[in-house]
Amino acid sequence: MRRERSRTNRPPRRSIVARTDADDEVLGRAFDRRLIARLWQTTRPHRRLVVAGMLLFPVVAAVELLQPWLVKVAIDEHILRADWAGLATIAGFYLATLAALYALHTVESYLMHLTGQRVMHDLRAALFERLLALDARFFDRNPVGRLMTRVLNDVEAVNDAFTGGLFAVVADVVTLAGVVAIMLWMDWRLALVTFSIVPALLVAAAYFRVRSRDAYREVRRRLARLNGFLQESLQGMSVIQLFARERHEHASFRRLNGDYRRALFGSTMFEASLYASVEALGSVALALLVWYGGSQIASGGLTFGALVAFMQYTHRFFLPIRDLGAKYAVMQAAMASSERIFGLLEVRPAIVSPASPSIARPTAGTPALEFRGVWFAYEGEDWVLRDCSFQVARGEHVAIVGATGEGKTTCARLLNRSYDVVRGQVLVDGVDVREWDLERLRRHVGIVFQDTLLFTGTVEANLRLGADGTVSSADLDRAVKLANARTFIESLPRGLGEELGERGHNVSQGQRQLLAIARALVYNPAVLILDEATSSVDPGSERLIQEAMRELVAGRTTVTIAHRLATIQGADRMLVLHRGRVHEEGTHQTLLRAGGLYAKLYELSMGARTA
Amino acid sequence: MGGVLCLAIATLASLGIPWTVKRAVEALETDAANAALGVFVGSILGLAAINAAARLGSRLAMIGAAQRVEADIRDDLYASLTRFPPALFTRYPTGDLMARATSDVSGVKTVVGFGGVSMIQTTFAFVGAIAAMVVVDPWLTLWAMLPFPAMILLARRFTSLVHERTEAMQGQLGVLSGRVQEHLAGMSVVRAYAMEGQARETFGQASAAYLRHALALSRIQAQFTPLMSLIAGVGTLVVLWAGGLAVVEGRITLGSLVAFNGYLAYLAWPTLALGWTLSMVRRGLTSMGRIQEVVEAVPDVERTEASRRVPRGGPAPRSRALAFRGLAFTYGDRAPALVDVTFEVGEGEVVAVVGPTGSGKSTLGLLLVRLWDPPIGTVFVGGQDVTAMDLATLRGDVAYVPQESFLFSRSIQDNVTLARPDVDQVEAKQAIVLAGVAEEIEGLPRGLDTVVGERGLTLSGGQRQRVALARALAGEAPILVLDDVFANVDAAKEEEILGNLAGALHGRTVLLTTHRLRAARAADRIVVLDAGRVVETGTHDALIERGGLYARLWRIQQLEEEIAHAP
Ligand SMILES: Nc1ncnc2c1ncn2[C@@H]1O[C@H](COP(=O)(O)OP(=O)(O)OP(=O)(O)O)[C@@H](O)[C@H]1O
Ligand SMILES: Nc1ncnc2c1ncn2[C@@H]1O[C@H](COP(=O)(O)OP(=O)(O)OP(=O)(O)O)[C@@H](O)[C@H]1O
Ligand SMILES: [Mg+2]
Ligand SMILES: [Mg+2]
């Protein structure tokens, strides 16, 4: 009874894993101008903090660079001249610079963290907001684990960019500029001798940069795989345990873990090499100073104090450069992360409210729900619904039946615009759902899903989900009673205040369904869709719910999807879904008499009974 | 240990450099014209080369080792997660565990890697530099070291603060991560109930709380490093002053003072590093504690008295009978889920368990496969107490299909075989046919190779349920426990599957939980649970005769069908 699919010219379905892996392999350049510009924009609300931080950099650098200068003066003008009193003054100045540096560094560092954390907070909120707006199709393609990585880990990497990369680099550049200026001013020849090392430095940096970039790409890819695997293992752990697959899964994990470690080591190697070579070059510069400076002293062209100060300045010149490798790695990580973050922020939700939504003004004859020649496929040309049309009148109770996998749940999803039709129209109260304001539509059409999903939090919080604050506890009580969930809730130690676990796993499956029904009743939509809402509920409770429904259904448009034909007898009309369209429709009796598909389905199930 | 040796060499070499500079300056002081500058320059270059090579070696060795440690920690964590019973997943939600496995593990890595290197490096640097300084001038060294005790006291106070605040922050990260995970996984409900506003709010609160905790940590961290360098700077100041005086009085040479200054400058970096190293180590230890907590959470559940008595993997008789004897079970502070449950399922027998929602049917299955641990001496498989059985053996004997189907985002084929050695492609295919889902899978563009979405969400509800069923049917487990596996299929399909099973499962013991009394009717015996108690047992006919709960439920289903049947 499988609908045929158009097998010709179908693009091969790409694997979900492959698709999203590629996303994690996006690799930023460490200093991508476009990205830095975007990052800079994210700081706009905190511009004052950033500006304050930036203003501090030159001050900090100046005070820092004053210190070797003070040492030079102390040696040349006081110590060598045995000027004890003058030395005390210099020492006083030195103490002042120390105190100032303490204060400045503390403020600077806190400003950096503050900016980083605030930007991170904003980005998290923006990402979450965007995810809330994205449509079901997007979530079909992007596993939760990956998206969580965006909201939590990638954002963290951007914070590192602020605290350990971007600002540090700016601060270093300011310091370097200061060092260079002072050295040139003190003795330009000696300064040039020191700087003669710079070309070698650049060559080393360029070489390692290219190498570390490749290594880094590998690290990212491995880590993404590792975390994706872990996340899924956590959710399916009981299945792994049940089939005693622990060892096997563990072996797969170990393999991924080992791959990651090796990749990481590769990138460490380049970073360590850069560090060591910069340090070595620093010593070469020192040697040059001794050699050239020494001969200058011999010829009387240089003072001892100046030479000592020069050595200290050279030291400070190389200090920031030496850690360049580490900063580079931080920046690279940050850029790769921002690329993905901004990439996600730029994803346009395919399903949004129209700019000027129409307000439905149904007249007496307008059907509450209507499918008009609907074609729908989740993927390419794999049609699930093909030219499907039906109407549901206001206040009518309609049942949708059909074999499994025929597209019943899909119909429900189209009604609340989780997906958009490919061709044709879905109308609610005579207005195309694409012209409805989304939130209005979803308040109008409420669905109890086949997959019951509760959230952590109290039972009451779960029942009030999405309902505006106006729901009185009497309404809540009534819904609980109608859903036949009252005895069960009362049996919980804390009643409505009982805390539910992840996905509601600490109550039984049937109890979850009862809560989901109660939740929909509290939500109180004009159109109620029940998709296998009582599939795991015992006949006794189901019976009670059905009776309650009668009261509920009165005046409300209701669509019930159920496999057990016996449970949908209350419906006014049946729609039989077959091969992607409504194959037959009518009341139970007319359909039975017509002797079509429905009659056959029915007979099969009755036959099963008497077998 | 090669790493430490390299580090020692590197430290010596790098300490030699200021020493050489000192000698050069002294030579210049005494006789500038004839100083043998070439020798000094040469030795500086030589020392630099040794330093670079040794430092590179040490870093690679030590960071490499640290990365190994990291990998091992992650591996251990995973290993203990595979032994996590559901009870623990209640205590540690997925989001929280992910936070531990990513953020905390990387915190630990930083400690063992950079933290380790920088600890050892700092120690060497201090020891070496102080020794060198003592050689130059003991008195001056004493002066220079004056501020260091203050540093140590400060560091202690500081690390305990870092610990507290890190713990708070990481805890909140777990909460945040849980919120994100849950909302993303439940997006269909979020959407359908237009609860974006609510979601935004709960997320916003968690995120803001995290921001607060992180800033609290930043506040002390921001202060610490500058404070350390302030104290270290005071050392330089003292040397400048006292040393200057000494030079003036001719007690030491200018070269010594320069070298001294060189050593202090050399110490400036390790001192700074000490600040963040200490804070990193403290954070890392906190993270390590959080990981350890999870790793150690397992045994208290797993090591029941009974399982210790039995050698793991010992031979178990593959008998197929099941028995529950006086089984009582309660989840936490809830009302008892099972009370004094006693019944047996003989070899090759098919027993159905029915009863109202929440009457404890699923709990029976969970205890049988020990996803939850039953009390000792209450649940038996093949005459053996399950709590005394090796888990792998038990689960090899009992194939259990949970009520909620879970598929991995892998191909359908892989989902069915789960890479079990005893399940090959052919068997998987057979199982899929038995589960009545073969036709539909063939209809998918890539058939068995179709990769399904997370949790199997790109399949329809009924398809997912039957793939999960196929998974249990493949393989040779002599005992099958099927929990409500027909909930999402129509009566005809149910009948088809039951028919398939009757033929294929001949001789297997089956415990079938269901709300479809038609399916129960075919069973050899029916056990009726109500509020955790066995209220009646017997064949369908006997139970109808008896006129109890089962008869009432049956009548309800009958009635519905008759109403439907009525012309
Ligand atoms: N998110 C999705 N992405 C791709 N294909 C999907 C997705 N959801 C469902 N399908 C496919 O679309 C078809 C119709 O699915 P749907 O869930 O609408 O069936 P159903 O009639 O509700 O079945 P059931 O009775 O088993 O719940 C199935 O073949 C299913 O595999
Ligand atoms: N993890 C848990 N923590 C606490 N209580 C639980 C947990 N799982 C189940 N319960 C409670 O134990 C009782 C028995 O649950 P169980 O899942 O065994 O019922 P069931 O008979 O399978 O119900 P259903 O027909 O709805 O599947 C219920 O009251 C339920 O709320
Ligand atoms: Mg469905
Ligand atoms: Mg159950």
Keywords:
heterodimer, A: 611 residues, alpha/beta, ABC transporter transmembrane region fold, Rossmann fold, 6-stranded mixed sheet, 4-stranded antiparallel sheet, 63% helix, elongated, B: 567 residues, 2 domains, binds adenosine-5'-triphosphate, binds magnesium ion
Mind telling me the CATH class of the largest domain in chain B? Mainly Alpha
> What is the tally of helical segments of chain A?
21
Report mean pLDDT of chain B, rounded to a whole number: 82
Supply the CATH superfamily name of the largest domain in chain A.
ABC transporter type 1, transmembrane domain
Q: Catalogue the ligands.
A: adenosine-5'-triphosphate, magnesium ion
Write the CATH fold name of the largest domain in chain B: ABC transporter transmembrane region fold
Structural class of chain B: alpha/beta
By DSSP, the count of extended strands of chain B is: 10
Question: Uncertain spans of chain A, ≥5 residues at pLDDT below 50?
Answer: 1-26
The major sheet of chain B is characterized as: 6 strands, mixed
Q: Regions of chain B with pLDDT < 50 over 5+ consecutive residues? A: 303-316
Residue fraction in strands of chain A:
5-15%
Count of individual helical segments of chain B = 21
- What characterizes the major β-sheet of chain A? 6 strands, mixed
Largest interface, with Cβ-Cβ < 8 Å? A-B, 188 and 183 residues
User: What is the approximate shape of chain B?
Assistant: elongated
Q: Report the mean per-residue pLDDT of chain A as an integer.
A: 81
Strand order of the largest sheet of chain A: 6-9-10-3-11-12
**What is the class of the largest domain in chain A in the CATH system?**
Mainly Alpha
CATH architecture of the largest domain in chain B: Up-down Bundle
CATH-defined topology of the largest domain in chain A: ABC transporter transmembrane region fold
